[in-house]
Amino acid sequence: MTTGPAEPPPRRRRGRPGYDQSAILRAAVELFNRKGYDATSVGDLAKELGLTKPAIYHHVTGKEQLLGEALDDALDELTAVVTEASRERAGATAYERLREVVRRSVEVLVAHQPSVTLLLRVRGNSEVELAALERRRWLDDRLAALVADAVAEGALRADVPPALVSRLLFGMVNSLVEWYRPDGAYDPATVADAITTLAFDGLARGERGQAS
């Protein structure tokens, strides 16, 4: 059986709470995605919310804190999903746990789409971004270990490197940020089923396809 990091990298500590902090965070994420993090100032955020800059600073220390909280929002639930799937449990094979990770990852992305969109745009230009990238690498490593376990069980083909499979699986899920809309034609369950089926069963008909 493969091994990997026992625990995920620590998440950043959240800032002090405030009455309007959730609204400030939502507006900040929207602005960061629309204008870019570097191009967005606290003044821009204050204008968007109809507040003064001191009112913003009453709740947060600055835009870096907001970035950190947004990235935590994108990563916390997914980290919990992958951590749970990495634990062996009676009656659940590595293959079954891997399929469940993919399915639940879609649900997490849909529920946190603005924050995940922001996460996928960070490049490591600050300590906050570097910490988020470290957490993403941990997720890739754990998923690759789960893929390797499924290969060892004989459930998956062995001719594709597990690390590449991990990147491709997350890549398929992450592509949703480019086109998925909550008010669109497909609900989250339909999308989760489709991605899981395509990732593990393919598009082949008849004997070439495998049942879930």
TrEMBL record:
> Which Pfam family is an annotated match for this chain, by its short name?
TetR_N
The lineage, from the top, is:
Bacteria, Bacillati, Actinomycetota, Actinomycetes, Streptosporangiales
Q: Which residues bind DNA?
A: 41-60
The protein's name: TetR/AcrR family transcriptional regulator
> Which organism is this entry from?
Actinomadura fibrosa
Which keywords, in A-to-Z order, does the entry hold? DNA-binding, Transcription, Transcription regulation
Concerning InterPro entries, the annotation shows:
DNA-bd_HTH_TetR-type_CS, Homeodomain-like_sf, HTH-type_TetR-like_transc_reg, HTH_TetR, KstR2_TetR_C, Tet_transcr_reg_TetR-rel_C_sf
What's the domain of life for this entry? Bacteria
Please state every residue range assigned to the domain named HTH tetR-type. 18-78
Family annotation (PANTHER family): HTH-TYPE TRANSCRIPTIONAL REGULATOR BETI (PTHR30055:SF234), HTH-TYPE TRANSCRIPTIONAL REGULATOR RUTR (PTHR30055)
Q: Does the keyword Cell membrane apply?
A: no
Question: Is Nucleotide-binding set as a keyword in this record?
Answer: no
